[in-house]
Amino acid sequence: TKTKRGQVLFANDPHIGFSQPAVWYEAHLNAPGLNLYGFWLAGFPFPQLVHTEHHAIGLTMFENDDIDFFREKPNPENPGQYEYKGNWIDFSERKETIRVKDGQDVGLTVKSTIHGPIVNDGVKIISEEAPLSMWWVYTKHPNRTLEASYQLCRATTMAEVKAAVQLIHAPGLNVMYGDRDGNVAWWAAARLPVRPAHVNSKLILDGSTGNDDPLGYYNFSENPQAENPGWGYVYSANNQSVSPSGIRHPGYYLPEDRARRIVTLLEEKDDWTAEDFKTMLLDVTSENVPEVVASLVPAIDLSGLSVTEIDALEMLQGWPGNFDLEASAPTIYNKFIYHLSYLIFHDELGPELFAVFNGNHLMKRSLQPLLANPTSVWWDDVTTTDRVESRSDIIQTAFHQSIAELSAQLGQNPQEWAWSKVHTLEHNHSFSAVPSLKKYFNVGPFPVSGNTETINNMLNHWQPDGTYEVFGGPSTRRIVDFADVAGNSWSILPTGQSGCVMSDHYQDQAEMFARGAFRPMLLDEEDIKKQAVSSFVFKVKK
Cα separations (Å) of 359 from 95, 118, 415? Predict the structure, then answer.
């Protein structure tokens, strides 16, 4: 009901770390009873992203919390035992051998409890002396992902797709669906644990009593989902979602930014076309960023600012939050946010934990509400013992540092601090670890628009040197128009279809991807023959 041609429009651009060769292998399979177009992971027999003349499937990560950590209580008289529900139980052990090329084998003893393996020695930042065990949904059930993928390809009804989705237990996925019959749906695919009411799954739990153990699993009907909702669309952007009965399952969800922007755009009109979807997938505006700027600017004392600082501040104040290549405000904003986060968190966390925190979803979700909260204890610099820093103190210091560093990096004129100069994408081949091979195997770099948490989600870290090297983003962009599946469906790969550096198709899509171009996904045999530039035929001798 929201499309110009009265049929379902479907789009998907799952975000994955960029690499060369690219993540997906794209192919069209046609055989008696089979006509599908899909994207394969290496070594996996069925496509995870797929469309047929009947339906389309897309994926994003659900980001649910399917791991719990338990602090175990060792027996002080027998280090080979731990306490569970009043009894001393022997740790289980198994031997693993890691074979090392041109080196000695490495022996590893994996020690486990009833909850799972002990992870202290495997995770460097764990400072606990007590053994910590890891309970993980993924290891508790048979893996039926292969079966689910097969059924998703062969399904002919929405009910069959929904049944296949329920075979997936972990990691959690948002499965997006649309079909030629006018159906749209979204299901969160995962086995979701029922935890005791007192348990906070983000904290380390008590393994000795059994009181913190998961109680079982919710029925699939309690997974977040929507089928043909009255407002006419479904979406997922790794954001927090709610089950049909209102349960908010714990997780490591992304902030609302992309989801909010998607809803804003979809609500604006009821005549969507495939061309409109191309524009939406390339959208680089954040509605949250201007709100962040508006909360920070009043805290800056204007009286002592330099001409360059005043110019930069005016750019931020008038900025609608678009991360376009020619804009300078994104460069100022990202530098400013880095220094703010550093001044807020580094004094408490230290360098190692700050680096971890700076690269995870909790930082993204925490920052906007924290920046708007003048009473937070985080504003104080705990390394200064003679004073308590205020929110204004930290914001003022961060702004001065940011403009000084940008002036040294890019010159005194903020008009010349274009986002294109600092925000780049290079597709790294594993051979680039050898410096002399890097220029032959890497693809790029390209200046790219967008930022972390815009719809065109170009993932980067805030970092001190003022450059933002994109490490992940849309692993493909796909659009399927059920008004003309064979003739009006579109995709793009980040680099090319071939992993062979000598092939013409090694990087022939890289420049197109960087500038936001698409190419058709052809299903019609005559169209394919007309546009083919080469063919490769296998003939089997009987």
Answer: 33, 25, 29
Q: What whole-number distance in Å separates Cα of residue 61 and Cα of residue 237?
A: 8
DSSP 240-261: ----TT-----B-PBPSHHHHH
Residue positions counted in the chain: 542
Neighbours of 429 (CB within 10 A): 20
User: Encoding tokens for residue 61?
Assistant: 């990560």
Which pLDDT does position 125 carry in this prediction? 74
Contact 445, 426 (CB under 8 A): yes
DSSP symbols for 31-65: ETTEEEEEEE-TT-SS-SEEEESSEEEEEEE--B-
DSSP state of 203: S
What would the pLDDT profile of 150-181 be if each residue is shown by its tens digit?
999 999 999 999 999 999 999 999 999 999 99
Cis geometry, peptide bond prior to residue 171 (ω within 30 degrees of 0) = yes
Measured distance CA(478)–CA(476) in Å, rounded: 6
Give me 203's structure tokens.
């904290």
- First vs last C-alpha separation in the chain: 53
Neighbouring-strand partners of residue 481: 9
**Helical residues (DSSP H) of 12-86, grouped into ranges:** none
What confidence tens digit (pLDDT) does each residue in 357-372 have? 988 888 899 999 999 9
Q: What is the DSSP letter of 170?
A: S
Residues β-bridged to residue 472? 17, 459
Beta-strand relationship, 173-179 and 184-189: antiparallel
CA distances from 202 to 64, 65, 70 (A): 11, 8, 11
Kindly state the helix (H) or strand (E) to which residue 527 belongs, with its residue range.
helix 525-531
Quote the pTM value: 0.93
Instruction: Tell me how many helices (H) and strands (E) the chain has.
Output: 12, 26
* Residues facing 425 on adjacent strands: 446, 470
Three-class SS of residue 117?
Answer: strand
The whole-number pLDDT of residue 488 equals: 95
Kind plus residue range of the DSSP H or E element containing 334: helix 329-357
Q: To which residue do tokens 């948002």 refer?
A: 174
How confident is residue 453, by pLDDT bands cut at 50, 70 and 90? very high
